[in-house]
Structure formats: structure tokens, C-alpha cells
Amino acid sequence: MRNVAQGPIAWRSELWGSPLRALATVLLLGLLAWAGFHAFEWGVVHAVFRPDADACRAVQHSACWGVVAEKWRPMLFGRFPYEEQWRPAVAVVVLSAVTVLSAWPRSWRWWLAPLWGVALLLFVGLMHGGVAGLSPVPTSRWGGLPLTIGLAVVGLALAFPLALLLAMGRRSEWPVVRTLSASYIELVRGVPLISVLFMASFLLPLLWPAGWQPDVLVRVLMGLTLFVAAYLAEIIRGGLQAVPRGQTEVAMALGFGRWPVQRDIVLPQALRLVVPALTNSVVGTLKDTSLVTVVGLFELTGALGLALGGDPVWRPFYLEGYLFVAAVYWLLCFGLSRYSVWLERRLGTSSA
């Protein structure tokens, strides 16, 4: 109760505790009010919401949200066939529903792994087609929000087990395993993601046998997985180092084996401690999927360029399109951050 009571007092002291602070507060509030008024006037009062390009051009210095009303489908689904766009919509719903279910601690049971297998099969089946009477759609025509969420979710799901092995390998007592794990982590963390994507897209095919090359989407997913795993490994290693070594020694003295100690005692505590850092890495991975545009895959940001770049009627209204895409990213990232706070409190690791 004392912290709650001191909250308003601390705010008043910080904002109005001295004449200089009061003056700075007044100036800041005035600046925010001025900016908010003009933003509201630009984006709401004088904005055009209907898909009418002529009306948008007639209104000067105001937002044209009609571009979103006109182009939302190519923005969200890219070059996927227009009449089949219900398929990526359902695929996103399926993958998102399983992801949300997996975020609930009570669902962390044995049946979650096969459920993920079914969800991924449904996602690929709906997107690719060729089964159940669905027309085939090559991965070159996948794009928009389904590609963004698919790359982020599948990439993280594949990267986490590899990261766990790398983190434990870097703490291994075997010098060879420790050296190989550390070398891989430092090598991958020392190069930017865009170079990894370029190598996966253009250099990796040179190493495969002639006549057999993985699809570009598969290669990009492999590169993203290997890249993200290196960063997750360091986060997990930090959590492992934070667990007191005495707990391991006591457990082994009581007769626990090495792997049961890691599985039942060390890892649960380590992962609880690094929830904020893991969430930060997940958010970063979600936003980094926008880099796949450079290798010819048009996710959410790239789909916006496709939707407006070839249409001279709506091309002048890129700002509103980017604000729409930014709002989608913000909703996803804000949801992840709030989930992190909730999970911290539920697991009892919050510092609040």
C-alpha cells in the first residue's frame, strides 16, 4: 500500500516540485496538446475515409485513409490470388490461435506438440494448396501478413530447441562441445541478418547437388532460424548462469542424474528469469522479417510496396499505407509486451 500511496506524490514532485520543473511540464504539455490537435485534425477531422482518389487529391494536407480501404487486401495478402485470399486469412487465424493457446501456461502439456504439428500442416496446406481440391499457389506468391507471422512463428519454434542446445553446449564441461557452440554463436552474432539472408538465398544453392535445390522460402527460413538461435542461446545462457550452482550440487547429492537436474530444476528457473529478454528477442524477430523483401519475398512491408508501387492512382498516399502497416506491427508487438508482463507476474519473476 505504501508504494501505491507514494505513486501520485512522486509524480507531483517530479512534474511540479520546483518552478523550473513546473515550467518544463507546462511547455511539454503545451507542445503535446499542439501536436495532438494538428494530428487529430490531419488524421480525423479533414481526412478522407472512402476509397475515392479524386476526393483525396482535392483535400490538401489531410490524411487519405481511403488508400487503406482500397488496398487493404493486397497489403495484407500480397500477390496471393484474389479469389483465394480466404485461404491465407484462415491460415493466419489457425496459426495465431495455436500461438495464443501455447502462451497459456495451463496448456503446456504433452498434446501441445502434436497440436502444433497439425496447425503447421494446415497452414502449409492452405497456403500452398494442391490438396483437398485447393489450387496450387507457389511460395513466390505468398506475402503480406501470413508470410510475416509464418516466418516469425515457425522460425522461433525451430530456433528455440537449437538455442537451448547451444546454450547448454557453451556451458558444457567438454572442451570440444563448448568451443564449437561458442564459435557458432559468436560467428553468427557477428554478421547482420541481411547478409545471412543473402547467403541463404543466393550462396546456399551453390552447395546443393545439381537439380535439387530447396525453395527460396525454405532457405530463408533456415537462415532466419540459425540467426535467431544464436541470440536466443545467449539469453538462455544468461538465465542458466543466474541459477545458483549450489542447487545443482544438492540435487546431484540427493541422487538426481545430470539431465533430470537440468530438465526439472535448472531450466525452469532459468527460463523464468529471462522472460523479458526472450520477449524482446521475439519482438525483434517479428520486425526483422521485413528484411526478407531484399531476397524477393514480400511480407507485410514488401506487400505495401507492391500494392502502391504499380498503381499511379494511389501511389502518392504511401504515408497512410505505412502508418497502417506500422499500426499492424505495433498491435502485434504491444500484445507481446503485455503478455510478457502478465507471464512475469504469473511466474512470480516480476520486479514490480
How would you describe this protein?
The chain is an all-alpha fold and 352 residues long. 72% of the residues lie in helices and 1% in strands. Helix 5 runs antiparallel to helix 6. The longest helix is centred in the last third of the chain and has 30 residues. It is globular and about 80 Å long. The mean pLDDT is 87.
Helix fraction, binned, reads over 70%
Question: Structural class, judged by helices and strands?
Answer: mainly alpha
Q: In DSSP terms, counting alpha (H) and pi (I) runs of 4 or more, how many helices? A: 15
Gyration radius, rounded: 25 Å
What is the arithmetic mean of pLDDT?
A: 87
Strand content: under 5%
Distance between the termini: 13 Å
Helix and strand run: HHHHHHHHHHHHHEHH
Question: Main sheet, how many strands, which sense, barrel?
Answer: none
Low-confidence stretches: none
**Total number of β-strand segments?**
1
Shape: globular
Q: How would you briefly describe this protein structure?
A:
With 352 residues, the protein is mainly α.
Question: Main attributes?
Answer:
352 residues, mainly alpha, 15 helices, globular
Q: How are the SSEs placed, and which strands pair?
A:
Blueprint: H1 2-16, H2 19-45, H3 53-58, H4 66-77, H5 86-102, H6 112-128, H7 144-170, H8 175-189, H9 193-203, H10 216-242, H11 245-253, H12 258-273, H13 275-288, E1 298-299, H14 300-309, H15 318-347
